[in-house]
Give the backbone structure.
Amino acid sequence: MLRLENIDITLGKGTKLERKILNQLNIDVKEGEFVVVIGENGAGKSSLFNVISGFITPDSGKIFIMQRDVTSTSQLQRAKLISKVMQDPKIGTIENMTISENMAFALNRGQNRGLKLFTNRDRTSLFKEKLSMGNIGLENCLDEMVSNLSGGQRQILSIIMAMLQDSKILLLDEITAALDPASSEVIMKLTNQIVRKQKLTCIMITHNMNHAIQYADKILLLKNGTFIKEYGENDITTLTPFALAAEFDAI
Ligand SMILES: Nc1ncnc2c1ncn2[C@@H]1O[C@H](COP(=O)(O)OP(=O)(O)O)[C@@H](O)[C@H]1O
Ligand SMILES: [Mg+2]
C-alpha cells in the first residue's frame, strides 16, 4: 500500500549545521495494516510523516502509494489519499465554527476551489453517519460550536474529519499526547475501532508503549532517521510495555 525506499533528507546542506534528518529509511506498509512508530524526540518521526504527505520532498529515495511512484507529486495531489491527525486537537478542527461547518470544510479538502460550507439533506445524513462512528454522540449536535467540545471530543472529530474523503492512509502523530489519561484511553480505543472498521492503512507515532503493544500489527523503532528494530505480530504478543520501554532506553 505504502512503500518508502532509501529516503534521505539532509538539512542545511554544505553549512556547519548540516544534518541528516532521515537516513536511508525504508518502510513497507501493507493494506489495512496498523503500524506504530516509536522513537526519541528528534529521531525524525514527524519528518517521516512530512515526507509521506508530500510536505517535504526527499533529497533522494522513492515513495510508492498503491504501486504508483508519487515521489514528485505535490501535497495537494496526495491529500485525497492521505490524511493526517496531529497532537493538538485545535489544529485538526476549527474552533469558531459548528461541527457541521467543520465537516463541510473537511469534505472540501484537497479540492482547490472556494469554500463551500453549505449543508443540505444529503450532506447532513452523510455527516451524521460518519460522526456516529465516533460513538460519543457528535451526530446529535451538528450545530454545536467546536469551542464547546472537550479536547478528547475535538480529537475524535479531527479523526472523523480526516477520514471524510475516504482516504486510504491515515497518519496519526501523537494524537493522545495532549489529552488526560482517561480521555487518551477512550480516544485510542475509538480510533482503533474506526481504523479497523474502515480498513484503513494506518501509521501512528506514539510515546505510549501500552498503546503501541495494544493496537499495533507492527512496531518500528526509529533512531537517527532510520528504523533500527521491528517487532512483528508474533513478537508483540509476548512483548510487555516495560520490556519495550527498556529496549527503547537501551538504544
Ligand atoms: N524544518 C526544520 N528545520 C530545521 N530542523 C528541522 C526541521 N524539521 C525537523 N528538524 C530537525 O530534524 C530532526 C527530526 O525532527 P522530527 O522529525 O520533528 O523528530 P520527532 O518527530 O521524532 O521528534 C530534529 O533534530 C529537528 O530539530
Ligand atoms: Mg514529532
